[in-house]
Amino acid sequence: MYNYHLCTKRLVLCIDQKSFFASVSCILKGLDPLTTKLAVVADTKRKGSVVLAATPPLKQLGIKTGSRLFEIPSRSDIYIINPSMKTYLTYAQRITEIALRYVAPEDFHQYSVDEFFIDMTDSLHLFSKTIEEFAQLLKTTIYEDTGIHCAIGIGDNVLLSKLALDFEAKHHPTGVARIQYHDVPSRLWPLKPLSDFWGINKRTERKLNKRGIFTIGDLAQYPYEYLKRDFGIIGVDLHLHANGIDESIIREKGEIFKPSISKSQILMRDYKVEELKAIIIEHAEVLGYRLRRKSLLARTIKCSIGYSDGEKIAKQQTINDGTDLTEKIVSVVWKYIYQHVDHHRMIRTVSISLTGLIPKSEQQMTLFDDSTDLKQGIIDQTMDRIKEKYGQTAVMRGTAYGQSGTALERKNLIAGHKK
DNA sequence: TCTGGGGTCCTAGGACCC
DNA sequence: TCTGGGGTCCTAGGACCC
């Protein structure tokens, strides 16, 4: 049993917008998310498409995030709709602005589009007497300003706030729950299955089950050395988290540096290898554009290809000086695909990710000795400017117009979702 | 009835260097 | 005959998150 008096104790809130995409889509239609059965699916035209969000009444019928479109019963009282990503982002922005009325930006952390953390340790006294009272205030304000219901977990650290949210607040009628260090044995330890716990998925759960670990309490009391031996660093985290320990503090994270940029796509149909070139160019253009906008260079280019049968292969290549040239990304990826992908098999997924990102200011001048690179750089810059002025589809390389290009069909999508 | 898209972080083995 | 050790980087593949 840990001596929690030695642990950093803060007032952290984890806020989750209930069925976020589905709720916003209800509001857009003038419907009440708490009484309407509505699902947002990635693409209503694809039967196997995943459910991105479902309202609570639909969830009661067994449909949840990750279900497939064909699992939803066809009933006249169930709405099935495509995402409106642009609007979702606008709502998320409005909610962020509300949160920032109560904390300094360094005490705020956006975890995902519908989830964020705030550390109220320093500013609570300005707004409320107790943290529970503040949570209610925040919840009410968000609802009154946007129509979105949220759930709030309160904890002595970031982890406990997240667990309070996932295990209790989301299921309580009040939508608010608090877990402190002294609650760990009574409220965390009885929990099972393990895969409900943050950071443990089914596979890890099975491995733990084999060792006779079924509850969080089992995990907390299992000899730490064995976890470390068998699971490495993750084992250490499993042990600490099961004991409610997490020393991270939001404002100490510093500026968040995103270590990678990626673009992946499940294709609308099976593709032959030769048909992939146009897709690669589209992806490279988007990635190159994102790199150049941030004045970054990528040193490592990684390409993953998924065959129709689900098998995946990947290859990465590191370029010492780094690049932000669309053409360079295309040539590295295409060379790999052409040489290493089996031309007799059909392709269903394509993903390119850029890592080892470095600021462009660190670029070696030698790169510019190559006049081809210089020319490509000018072409990219010109295309970027046209796109900024007239939109993403204003200019495209010739190949994107061919049969296998998807950029034109996708121009109305954000992150693969409909605007 | 084939598939969301965007991420982060870890590991094991190998190459290479001193 | 039978192998140095430590550090760093790269690669391919997983696990997990929303």
UniProtKB/TrEMBL annotation:
GO terms for molecular function: damaged DNA binding; DNA-directed DNA polymerase activity. GO terms for biological process: DNA repair; error-prone translesion synthesis; SOS response. The keyword Nucleotidyltransferase applies. GO terms for cellular component: cytosol. Transmembrane segments: none annotated. Residues 12-201 form the UmuC domain. It holds the Pfam family IMS_HHH. Keywords: DNA-directed DNA polymerase, Mutator protein, Nucleotidyltransferase, Transferase. The keyword Phosphoprotein does not apply. Belongs to the DNA polymerase type-Y family. PANTHER family: DNA REPAIR POLYMERASE UMUC / TRANSFERASE FAMILY MEMBER, DNA REPAIR PROTEIN HOMOLOG YOBH. This is DNA polymerase V. It comes from Abyssicoccus albus.
